[in-house]
Every structure is written in C-alpha cells, then in structure tokens.
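Recap slide: Cystathionine beta-lyase, sequence and predicted structure.
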Amino acid sequence: MTKKTSMLGSAGANTRLAHIGNDPLSYHGFVNPPVVHASTVLFPDSETMEKRGQPYSYGTRATPTTDALCAAFDELEGSAGTILVPSGLAAISVPFLAYLSAGDHALIVDSVYTPCRNFCNTMLTRLGVEIEYYDPEIGAGIDALIKPNTKLVHTEAPGSNTFEMQDIRAIADAAHKHGCVVTMDNTWATPLYFRPLDFGVDVSIHATTKYPSGHSDIIMGSVSANAQWWPKLEETRILMGICGAPDDSYQILRGLRTMGIRLEHHQKSALAIAQWLEGRDDVARVLHPALPSFPGHAIWKRDFKGASGVFSFVLKADSDNAKAKAHAFLDALTYFGLGYSWGGFESLALHVNLSDRTIRKQPEEGPVIRLQIGLEDIADLQQDLEQGFLAAAAV
C-alpha cells in the first residue's frame, strides 16, 4: 500500500475523487491515465498465451483505461470488483442475467426505473423468470413475499420519478435470511451520498451516464459487487462479451474529478427550488426526500449523506385537463430542456408517465412533473418555472 493510498482512506470526498483511479508514476508522470485502444493484445510466448499469464489478454477483457475507472468505483463503493457496460440499462440487465435462471422468482420495487420494468416484463419473463413487484415502503415486511425460489431482490432509493424511500438495511437483512442476492440502483445518490454495500446490498448499480459523466455526452453503466457475488458478475460479463469503451471510461474518469463539487451545487439549487415550489398554491405536492414534509424524509435523513438534483412535483389539475396543463407548463419553459436522462449541467423537465405502475400509481391531484436542476442560477430557473405555471393556469 502506497502512502497516498493509505491516506485516501480517511480523506474527504473531493480529495478522494481527485486522486482515485490514477497512478501518474505508472505513466511517466502524466496526471491522467492514457486512453488505450485495444482489441488484439500480443503475448511474449505460447505458454503465456495459453495461460493468459499477463494482465491484459484481449480488449473486451480489460484495458489500463477501463481498469483505472473500475479501480475508482471500487474505491468509492467499497466493492470487490466493478464491471463497465455500455448503458445504465445494461448495468441492470447484466446482473439480472447473472443471478437469475428459468424457474426463479425476483422481487422488483414498484417504483423502479421504467426500462428496468420493461426488461423484466419481456426478456426475463420470456426466459422463465417469475417477476413480482412490491411496495417501496415495505421494509422488513418483504420477508412475507419471499418464496423458496426467490433469488433476487431489486431496490432503488429513492424511487424513479416519485422518489419513495426504501429501508435498504431492513430489506437486505430479510432477503439474506433466504439466501437472495440484493441489488440496488443507486444512480440518484451516487456513492458519495449513499454506499449501498455498507447497508447490506450485494450489488450496486449506476447509470454513470448521469452524475459521474456530468456533461450529457456519455452513455455508460457500472456494476460493483461484494466478494460473494463478484465472480459470477464478472463471468457473465465475459460470457456475454460486454465491455465499456476506453474513450468513454476516460471521460467518466474526468467527470469524477468534479462530481463532488457539482453534486453540492445540484443539491443546493434543487432543495431551494423544491422549497419554493412547496409554497405555491398551484403545486399539490413536492416529491423530494430532503423535504421534512416528504413521507420518506426520516429514512433519507438517517441513511443518506445528501440529495442530488432530481425531484418531482404534482401540478394541481383536474383529471380532464391534467395532460393539457402539463404540456402547457413544459412548452413554456426556456432554460429547462425537454429531455430524458439527467445529471448533466443543464436543467431538464418532463411529464412523468406512471401508467405501468401496479402499486404506487398516478397521484389523483394532478400530473407529475420531474425536474433535473442543473448548474444554472436559481433565480433564472425560478423565473423560467413561473412562465410554465402561467401557461398552465391559462389552460
């Protein structure tokens, strides 16, 4: 262990982000690891080739660039190993395929990321996996849903679009009594604000497209596992021929250096706007875990170190004109772009579709509008939202 490595264990978040995943002395002193493009890797002799007796054997297995990013995520997550995949959805589908087989039963939180739900309802069902959705606030009560063939429990906190909090420790403890693997989509909080493996989760999933990238120009996912579940995860990645690209890995590494600073700004601005929205008569509810009024606030305050820049609110509207008001609100925005994803420097907004939910369904008070608060000034974003409310009121 080097002196720097030993010091980083007790260093602050921004110090760690500045120094993990790179070793300048290994690359002639250059601060950033090089981008190594590779398919073929040459061996010095036949025996080495036969036994793969060198660190790198083929481009899909690993490169110095992808290894640097994996090392950074292992440091952040406290994991035994990390794989890189081409998207956030792949970061969900690969571990599901690694740990589930025909005849198995999987419990999936009802507030899950919609593409995850689509994958479960189509691909996994077609492969013979039984899928069951559960209430995000079930906590230790999930024990009653676990069957003899239950193999995986998937969590996401806060939940996509409606931001329900989950008692991750209670769910993990119940699942482990039955030998289930526990996975968690932790994209919202990042390992800076929540470390899933510290709360009993076995496999931590991220769309690194979001905050690790931070600039809306990279698609990638990461999956970090503890020692028990890491070998099967890595084996599945190799069998499926899935890997992260070196260029994308380099960009994500660069994004990590400023992620802590960016998250602080996202958090501060989002909370200020959420509090402002909470005082408006045309807003029925604000769905932000860091607000004391939010039902899951106590769990968030107990377990999380911070909040990111994504939350939702319920726009007051009768069922007859809910869609029209939501569209009028969104179409009047200027600084807020209308687009999917989040975690970049720019603010985004969208009308949330909750039609696929089976438990946590569409609120009766009106449409749900999700906001990604970027790095713009708060006053400008509030002025933009005012235009949206004026347009919605005119409908």
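The mean pLDDT is 95.
Residues 246-278 form the longest helix (33 residues).
(End of recap.)
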